Amino acid sequence: MTSASFYPIGTPLQPWGAAEKQAWLAAQVRHRSYADDVVARVDRLRSRFDVSEYGRLVYGDETFPQLAIRSRNWNDALPTILVTGGVHGYETSGVHGALQFVEQHGEDYAGRVNLLVVPCVSPWAYERIHRWNPNAIDPNRSFRENSPSEESAALLRLVAPIRDKALVHIDLHETTDTDETEFRPALAARDGKPTAPEGIPDGFYLVGDTEDPQPEFQQAIIAAVEKVTHIAPPDENNEIIGSPVVAHGVINYALRDLGLCTSITKARYRTTTEVYPDSPRATPQQCNDAQVAAVRAAIDFALGQVAR
User: Fold this and answer.
1) Residue 5's pLDDT is what?
2) Looking at the domain assignment, is residue 4 inside a domain?
3) In 3D, which of 70, 98, 65 has the Cα closest to residue 84?
4) Is residue 272 part of a domain?
5) 288 near 96, Cβ under 8 Å?
6) DSSP letters spanning 245-292
7) Where are the residues of the annotated region Disordered (predicted)?
8) Is-contact 86 121, C-beta < 8 A?
């Protein structure tokens, strides 16, 4: 049963207008630095990889360069791998896991694949530890033509040349306790809808594509991550966050219909990782390591299939 959940902005069951969105924006606080945490680490990679600014976000008096990391000596004859993190800026290990993968393992794939890594799609939200951009828009429901989210639109422009060529796209996310306490109530308040608790799964899981689930690919990633951290079990309804569990640690979404990031290419192998950083059984470093293990397993499985 659903019920209206209290949220301190707006009137229950009435969608927000401009005044409510402005009140929400005024309540957001900067907690960390994109320049220090992300840009500085990307800059240190310039000697080993090609780094480009694929866009520039301007929000009030703040400007954020949008950065992409590419394999040096890009070769169109090689398979292309897309790794994205920080679509939801508050999901920390998505950002730091993407960077750690490039730092520690990016060169392992030189001459075998083209890597395109975007470690932080949503820098404003990274600093505010939030899910939305300043316009109260969720970038990960906005990957479609004429996107209302500049974060999403810029990424769509970046990947357009590889849209039909990518072999793998892995998008790095987290599910956190604040999904239940802050972000789901905020979403319901913004849209004037009722909400109900869905629960937070304790562990890592994947979100595949309902239209092309690639179960062997998903299970190869789960097997690799299980060596690093625990996999989320299903709830009493055999679901994770309200979706049926189709295999160990895997649920599926209709990616394109929902405008999710992993719908932006026609890659054969696509998945979204979900790490649980609030678990008493996992540390922040384990969460980063789990993201890295997932990326490596995704690439290795796909290359193994291409080699057959």
Assistant:
1) 56
2) no
3) 98
4) yes
5) yes
6) --BTTEEEE-HHHHT-GGGSS--SEEEEEEE-TT-TT--HHHHHHHHH
7) 189-209
8) yes
Q: What is the pLDDT of residue 3?
A: 39
User: How far is the C-alpha of 180 from the C-alpha of 157, rounded, in Å?
Assistant: 32
Pairing relationship of beta strands 269-275 and 166-174 according to DSSP bridges: parallel
Whether residue 159 contacts residue 168, with contact meaning beta carbons closer than 8 Å, is answered with: no
Place of tokens 């969105």: 21
Mean pLDDT of the chain: 96
Q: How many CB atoms lie within 10 A of CB 58?
A: 9
Cβ neighbours around 256 below 10 Å, total: 15
Cα–Cα distance for residue pair 122/127, rounded to 1 Å: 9
Q: Give residue 195's domain range.
A: 18-306
Query: pTM, whole model, 2 decimals?
Result: 0.97
Structure-block tokens of residue 87: 């679509």
Domain-located, residue 37: yes
Summarize pLDDT for 140-156 with one digit per residue, the tens.
999 999 999 999 999 99
CATH, residue 164: 3.40.630.10
Tally of domains within the chain = 1
Residue at token pair 């629960």: 199
CA distance 131 to 122: 9
The segments of the chain whose pLDDT lies below 50 read 1-4
Beta strands in 175-242 (DSSP E): 205-209, 239-240
Residue 5 DSSP SS3: coil
